[in-house]
Amino acid sequence: MDQQTLERSLVDLPLGSIRYYDQVGSTNDQAARWIAEGAPNLSLILADEQTAGRGRSGRQWITPRGVALAVSVVLYPTLEDSDVLPRMTALGALAICDALRNTYRLPAQIKWPNDVILNRRKVAGVLAEAQWTGSDLAAVVLGLGINVASASVDGAVLPASALRFPATSVEDVLGRPVDRLEMLRAVLVEFLRWRKRMGWPDFVRAWESRLAFRGEWVQVFSGRGSSDTGALPLLREGQIAGLTPDGSLKLTVRSGDVVTVQFGEVRLSPLKSEAG
Ligand code: BTN
Q1: Are 68 and 84 in contact (CB under 8 A)?
Q2: Which CATH number do you get for residue 30?
Q3: Domain-terminating residue out of 209, 233, 257
Q4: Is residue 232 part of a domain?
C-alpha cells in the first residue's frame, strides 16, 4: 500500500485529505496532531503498521504490518450532534458492521458499546477521542481497528491470555483473502451513509438491531483504570433488553426490573462465553 494507491481507491468518496504512513505509533495520535495543524473535516489517516496503537480503557491495540486496517477519521461535530461520543463510537461500529454484512455477507454484530464481533469473537474495535476547546467539543478522532487477516490476531503477536475477549479476523471467518483497500472502501461508504443520519431515530434503532447477545445474560464491568490482566469491578448483571434512545444499554436484572447502563468506560461479557 502507498499514498497514491490509497488516494486512488477512495477518490470518489467525499472525504477531507488523506495521509498514509508505513508505520506510526498510533493513527489517533497522528490525527490529533493534524487537527492542531488544521486538518479538514473527514480527513483520514491510515497506517500499514502501528507500534503503539491504543484501545479503550488504556489497553494496547496491536496492528502488525500488512494484515489489518488501522484508520483514524477527523470529525468536527456540528451543533446538531447530540450525545456526540456515544454516537460517534456507534458510527464507527455501525460502519464496520454494515460493511461486513452488506459487502461480505458476514453475520457481524455489535457488542455494546462498540466492538464488532463475528461468531462471538471480536473482529474490530473503535476508539473515539474528543478534543476540547475549554468546555466546547472541538473535534473527534474516530479510530477504527479491524483484524483483516489471521496474522492480525496471531498468538505470536498478542498471547491469548492478554485478550479479554476471544478474537478473530475477517479472513478466518470468510475463508478467503480480503483486499484491505476494498474493505476500507466498504467501511467508509457505510460510514458516510450513517454520518448523515447520526441524529435520526433510525440511527439508534440500527445500532440496537445489530446488538450481540440480545436476551442473553451478560455482565457489565467498569473498564476504568483497568490493566490488561487485572480484575475489573462488576457493575451489573442482566439480560440484554435493548438500547434507550441515547444509546444506553437496557438490562433486565434478576428481580425483573429493567436498568440502564450508560455508555462509558465499560466492558461487556456474555455469561456463556462461546457458542457451540
Ligand atoms: C478497542 O477495541 O479497544 C478499540 C481499538 C481501536 C484501535 C484503533 S486502530 C486505529 C486507531 N489508532 C489507535 O491507536 N487506536 C485506534
Answers
A1: no
A2: 3.30.930.10
A3: 209
A4: yes
The model carries a pTM of 0.92
Are 65 and 162 in a shared domain?
Answer: yes
Closest CA to 125 of 139, 104, 110: 110
Share of the chain above pLDDT 70, in %: 91
Instruction: From 61, 67, 165, give the residue whose CB has the most ligand 1 atoms within 8 Å, as the site to mutate.
Output: 61
User: Does ligand 1 lie within 6 Å of residue 30's CB atom?
Assistant: no
The predicted structure's pLDDT at residue 222: 85
Q: How far apart are the CA of 47 and the centre of ligand 1, in A?
A: 12
| 275 located within any domain | no
Å from CA of 154 to ligand 1 middle? 17
**Residue 64 near residue 152 (C-beta atoms within 8 A):** yes
The pLDDT value recorded for residue 134 is 83
Which of 185, 209, 233 is the C-terminal boundary of a domain?
209
Computed over every residue of the chain, the mean pLDDT equals 90
pLDDT digits 0-9 by tens, 215-235: 999 999 887 654 454 677 899
Total domain count, the chain:
2
State how far the Cα of 211 lies from the Cα of 116, in Å rounded to an integer. Answer: 9
Query: Which ligand 1 atom is nearest residue 114's CA?
Result: 2
70 CB near ligand 1 (under 6 Å): yes
Residue 58 — pLDDT band, cuts 50, 70, 90? confident
Whether residue 61 has its Cβ less than 6 Å from ligand 1: yes
Q: How far is the CA of 54 from the centre of ligand 1 (A)?
A: 5
Q: Positive or negative CA dihedral for 191, 193, 196, 202?
A: negative
As a whole number of Å, the end-to-end CA separation of the chain is 38
| Domain assignment of residue 49, given as a range | 3-209
**Considering only CA atoms, which residue is closest to atom 16 of ligand 1?**
143
